[in-house]
Amino acid sequence: MHTAIISAFESLIRLADKEKELVSSLFIPRQYARNEYFLREGQVCKMLGFITEGLIRYYTTNDKGEEQIFDFGKEMDFTCNYESFLDHSPSVVNIQCIEDSVIYCLSYDGLQELYTQLEEGQKFGRLACEQLYVYAIKKIRSLYNDSPEQRYLHFLQYYPDLQQRIPQYYISSFVGVKPPSLSRIRKRMSS
Q1: Contact 87/80 with Cβ under 8 angstroms?
Q2: Residue 129 falls within a domain, yes or no?
Q3: What's the rounded Cα separation, in Å, for the pair 173 and 66?
Q4: What is the C-alpha to C-alpha distance for residues 106 and 116, in angstroms, rounded to an integer?
Q5: How confident is the model at residue 191 (pLDDT cuts 50, 70, 90)?
Q6: 185 domain-assigned
Q7: What is the pLDDT of residues 172-182, one digit of tens each?
Q8: pTM to 2 decimals?
Q9: What is the predicted pLDDT for the residue at 128?
Q10: pLDDT per position as a tens digit, 48-72
């Protein structure tokens, strides 16, 4: 499934055939069972992943012991706790597979090699970071400004295919409401 990884890179930069071989050689496939963790809170994130099959959730646990889901990852998405990955600090985030998943993994050193060995490696890093930054700013702004209904609409817009793949209580956590509140939101929206 290296063709999917190559396509993800080529959506941002040009790759020569030799560079495609390098990218393919550095990503190692790993299978994860449903509920297995790509990363647990307290661990240092040592891998950047590319999901070719399956679905993951990103969550933290608040001081009441409640899980708070803040994102999902699906096929053709990169996954990582970039904060931990870049500064080698313990993660405050859990990344857990919701479904059996295949994730192609790249080490920190492998990523550095891509930055230096690919002609447009630095450009890839910059463009990927710019996309992450814009996405993060939109999510933060939504948390402060949007109603739960608007956050639910954002979920449906950004993840139109996930509603049938994940439990409703995951969606309610992502939206920031309790499951009964999500049911009321959905009922109001369908009328």
Answers
A1: no
A2: no
A3: 9
A4: 15
A5: confident
A6: no
A7: 999 999 999 98
A8: 0.91
A9: 92
A10: 999 999 999 999 998 898 899 999 9
Q: What is the CATH number of the domain that holds 72?
A: 2.60.120.10
Q: Does the residue 7 lie in any domain?
A: yes
CA–CA separation, 82 vs 64, rounded Å? 26
pLDDT tens-place string over residues 92-103: 999 999 999 999
Buried b (16+ CB within 10 A) or exposed e, 152-166: bebbeeebeebeeeb
8 A C-beta contact, residue 6 and residue 58: no
Residue 121 backbone phi and psi in degrees, to 5: -60, -45
CA–CA–CA angle 127, 133, 137 (5° rounding) = 150
Q: How many domains does the chain have?
A: 1
Instruction: Evaluate whether residue 175 is within a structural domain.
Output: no
Query: What residue numbers bound the domain in which 71 lies?
Result: 2-116
The 3-state secondary structure of 130-147 reads: HHHHHHHHHHHHHHHHCC
- Helix orientation angle between 148-158 and 168-175, rounded to the nearest 10 degrees: 120
Summarize pLDDT for 74-121 with one digit per residue, the tens.
999 999 999 999 999 999 999 999 999 999 999 999 999 999 999 999
